[in-house]
Specification:
643 residues; alpha/beta; eight-stranded antiparallel beta sheet; globular; binds 2-deoxy-2-amino glucitol-6-phosphate
Length: 643
């Protein structure tokens, strides 16, 4: 979703901002803009569509300034348009802001500000921020000039009382004005602001929406996402909720705010691992296919070092054996693909550890007053680590006294920082909006968690653990095997490409895989797809089946294989065009399916790790045949930072 970038230093800001915005593109957006200080004024340029469009329009503005802010917008309040794109300017054009998040009381604030004479140019919730800062700034500037006059009259004026030369470490007028403005806001925000009268300065504020700041030899950078920060930065400060930061060309200060008192604090810092952040698609046509092919590596990396001396360890869980033993319920919260990984985990946790496990989409969990006690282990799964609903659910669970364990792909992300313990999925940066390799990382991590819980409850003995771990490790080679030959997938894609709708079915593990397969297809090909536990077909969905209707069945070897086979037959008799994912050696299924995609034989518990691969390939193939944008599907964002 929306992204923020800012730079102040000794280089022209515009190219640095554009480079940062390009790195934010993967998050999904529909307009973009930058504002750069040019002498004593601020020049803002906004465009709808791609960053390339914005970049093409820049030469006519001859931007040379070395301080600026930029933004990619994913429309929430107001259509995608130049007027609604950020940066937003104050009425006199002297202040510019960019904002990520949602201002919930924007309508009320807009009404008050309009009554006070402010003119709004956009339909966004964000624009109230710049007008609030404008009011606060003029009030503070007036007070400061009165103080200066008084000091002049009394002959007591010292350099540090000047409005333009604040004491090092004291907040500037802009920082104070931003802080005052935030006091009126309800909602979530990451804000960067500039004012023409304080050249070279950027002020940032955050609540529930990330911002990181890093220093390089040529200036100071700020961004909403570490991957957008210049490569010249090796360590970033992570702004905490409620903090305000002030950047100039050489340094930055961070303040905590209590009422109207701003106190300088040392921010939390984080070293950047650029290897995990490489966004290069190499020889591949798009990031999605590259990321699908990375899955064997993800499995190996996620498992590395986990099983030593006959015991499985997840030290990041930060729970002692005794604490693990006290867990009497597991509650997994997640959204989208991460939710589907959680559905698989439920089967494993209940099956192996015999601990009741609930799985719930975070957006429901957070508004439901769920039963969570100190003996509940809450597991939050999120690739991006910044999904707004998942974060809100984490906060709720912690208030209720539960231990929260995060599973995320992004180092230092809000989910990682707000959880009691965290497993990183080792997928490395995932660029395609449709999650593939991070799903695999989540599956493997959740499998390890289920095994650990079973181990601590004494339900899995050392020999069983060893065998399971070895079979789990083998899935990497099996995934490689599947990826070697995609001809059958391609034939199935050709058969599905002109359909208007498709149905995915499976049972047990296969039901979760079917859900994820249907989501992938919808996301990238815009073909309507539904997933049902195969046993539910007769309770309604079978009415949709007509000759040629694509039915994609996950029919791998499992205790319910025969049942799935009968469900396939029921659909086939009604004319469905069946694509089956089946286990190598299963030739019987050919009698009932039009297309069979075989995958290596694997224990049912681990089948989602391999069975999802042909469905990811199928979704992408169909999308290609339908001429869709593979990596950036319409309307979708990589990080869903608003609810
Ligand atoms: C996956 O392909 C989707 N892009 C989406 O469903 C995603 O999984 C969901 O938004 C959750 O994101 P998260 O894992 O970053 O929290």
């Amino acid at each position: 979703m929306c992204g923020i970038i800012g730079y102040t230093g000794n280089r022209p800001a515009a190219p640095i901002l554009i480079e940062g915005l390009k790195r934010l593109e993967y998050r999904g957006y529909d307009s973009a803009g930058i504002a750069v200080e040019e002498g004593d004024r601020i020049q803002s340029v906004c465009r709808t569509g791609k960053i390339a469009e914005l970049e093409r329009s820049l030469p006519q503005f001859h931007l040379t300034g070395s301080c600026g802010i930029g933004h990619t917008r994913w429309a929430t309040h107001g259509v995608p348009s130049e007027a609604n794109a950020h940066p937003h300017l104050s009425c006199d054009g002297s202040i510019a802001i960019v904002h990520n998040g949602i201002i919930e009381n924007h309508a009320e604030l807009r009404r008050i500000l309009e009554e006070r004479g402010h003119t709004f140019l956009s339909q966004t919730d964000s624009e109230v921020i710049v007008h609030l800062i404008e009011d606060a700034y003029s009030m503070l500037a007036f007070e400061a000039s009165e103080d200066d006059d008084l000091a002049d009259a009394e002959g007591k004026r010292t350099p540090h009382t000047s409005t333009s030369e604040m004491l090092a470490g004291e907040p500037s007028l802009l920082a104070q004005a931003v802080s005052m403005a935030c006091g009126f806001l309800i909602g979530s925000w990451a804000i960067c602001a500039m004012v023409a009268s304080e050249p070279g300065k950027i002020v940032c504020a955050r609540k529930e929406s990330p911002l990181v700041i890093g220093r390089a030899a040529t200036g100071v950078h700020v961004a909403s996402d570490v991957s957008a920060i210049s490569d010249a930065v090796s360590e970033v400060a992570v702004l905490a909720d409620g903090q305000i930061a002030e950047l100039d060309a050489r340094m930055f200060n961070v303040f905590s705010v209590a009422g109207d008192v701003m106190t300088r604090v040392n921010p939390e810092t984080m070293k950047l691992d650029r290897r995990a952040d490489v966004a290069d698609r190499g020889q591949y046509a798009d990031f999605m296919i590259k990321e699908i092919h990375e899955q064997p590596r993800v499995i190996r990396d996620t498992l590395e070092g986990r099983f030593d001396g006959g015991e499985l360890t997840i030290s990041e869980l930060a729970l002692t054996h005794e604490e693990l033993n006290l867990i009497d319920r597991v509650c997994i919260i997640a959204c989208g693909t991460s939710y589907h990984a959680a559905l698989v985990a439920k089967n494993l946790i209940e099956g192996w550890a015999r601990i009741p496990c609930e799985v719930e989409v975070a957006s429901e969990f957070r508004y439901r007053d769920p039963i969570v006690t100190p003996s509940t282990l809450v597991v939050a799964v999120s690739q991006s680590g910044e999904t707004a609903d998942t974060l809100a659910a984490i906060r709720d669970a912690r208030i209720k006294g539960a231990k929260v364990f995060g599973i995320t792909n992004v180092l230092g992300s809000p989910v990682a920082r707000e959880s009691d313990g965290v497993i990183y999925t080792k997928a490395n940066k995932e660029v395609a909006v449709a999650s593939t390799k991070s799903f695999t990382g989540q599956l493997v991590s959740l499998t390890l968690l289920a095994m650990l819980l079973a181990q601590s409850k004494g339900r899995l003995k050392q020999a069983q653990m060893r065998m399971l771990f070895s079979e789990l490790s083998n899935t990497a080679a099996q995934a490689e095997e599947i990826l070697k030959d995609a001809d059958d997938v391609h034939r199935a894609a050709l058969a599905c490409k002109d359909a208007r709708s498709a149905m995915f079915i499976g049972r047990g593990m296969g039901a979760a895989v079917a859900e994820e397969g249907a989501l992938k297809l919808k996301e990238v090909s815009y073909l309507h797809a539904e997933a049902y536990p195969a046993g539910e077909m007769k309770h309604g969905p079978i009415a949709l089946i007509e000759p040629g209707f694509p039915l994609i069945a996950v029919a791998t070897e499992s205790p319910t294989y025969e049942k799935v086979l009968s469900n396939i037959q029921e659909a086939k008799t009604r004319g469905a065009m069946v694509v089956a994912i089946a286990t190598e050696g299963d030739e019987r299924i050919r009698e009932h399916a039009d297309h069979v995609i075989h995958i290596p034989k694997v224990r049912d518990a681990f089948s989602p790790i391999t069975a999802i691969i042909p469905l990811q390939l199928l979704a992408r193939d169909i999308a290609l045949l339908r001429g869709c944008n593979i990596d950036q599907p319409r309307n979708l964002a990589k990080s869903v930072t608003v609810e």
